[in-house]
């Protein structure tokens, strides 16, 4: 059974600082997704990573995928308050044909 | 921009009552998903449709939950009778094809259920 673990589950950081959120998963997969969720809102797609070594960047966020280590990272550069949200990674189990989500990382950026 | 439509946005009901949620996926999206998100947790898949057929309902509590997508377009998720533990956000998502080839899910705004 595919399991997805994120850490940390809660992250409080100062504006301007850098930090990384980690997403580990338990079975083979070559597809991983990052979503953002604001309080009371639905999930917004951030990145779709489709192969080993994939790296995508959008503004202050950069996501990467290492399928051999079964690890994805979401790196935040020079955080700003607007990045405060909950971030989820989701993995497509190779034979499951469905997305399994991590528990989410609550990010709070303090000014 | 095309969106996944869901209704109602909020529903408060008493234990043992029936409740239903509706979802209209993005036009042309063959695959439709219902996820349940308990506060503080990640979404969990309840049921997945490919056109009008159920592909995966292994996590759907079938004694009280039912889902249908009769014409392969919009879908209804029903709970009867509702229990306190059903309080959650019910998210509908759609994709052009199944996840393995689709590459991306698009989520609706969700239906928040509170069972008293």
Can you tell me about this structure?
The complex is a heterodimer of chains A (111) and B (116). With 111 residues, chain A is mostly beta strands. Helices cover 0% and strands 56% of the residues of chain A. In chain A, strand 7 and strand 8 form a beta hairpin. Chain A contains no helices and eleven strands. In chain A, the strands form two sheets. In chain A, strands 2, 4, 5, 9, 10 and 11 form a six-stranded mixed β-sheet that branches. Chain A is globular. Chain B has one helix at residues 99-102; strands at residues 5-7, 10-13, 19-24, 31-37, 44-50, 53-56, 65-68, 75-79, 88-95, 106-107, 111-115. The radius of gyration of chain B is 13 Å and the shape is globular. Chain B has 116 residues and is mainly beta. Helices cover 3% and strands 47% of the residues of chain B. In chain B, strand 4 (31-37) and strand 5 (44-50) form a beta hairpin. Classes of the chains: A mainly beta (111), B mainly beta (116). The interface between A and B is medium-sized, with 23 and 24 residues.
Fold topology:
The complex is a heterodimer of chains A (111) and B (116).
Chain A lengths: L3 E4 L2 E5 L4 E7 L6 E6 L5 E7 L5 E4 L2 E6 L4 E6 L8 E8 L6 E3 L3 E6 L1
Parallel strand pairs in A: 2-11
Antiparallel strand pairs in A: 1-3, 3-8, 4-5, 4-9, 6-7, 7-8, 9-10, 9-11
Chain B lengths: L4 E3 L2 E4 L5 E6 L6 E7 L6 E7 L2 E4 L8 E4 L6 E5 L8 E8 L3 H4 L3 E2 L3 E5 L1
Parallel strand pairs in B: 2-11
Antiparallel strand pairs in B: 1-3, 3-8, 4-5, 4-9, 5-6, 7-8, 9-10, 9-11
List descriptors:
heterodimer, A: 111 residues, mainly beta, five-stranded antiparallel beta sheet, B: 116 residues, seven-stranded mixed beta sheet
In short:
The complex is a heterodimer of chains A (111) and B (116). Helices cover 0% and strands 56% of the residues of chain A.
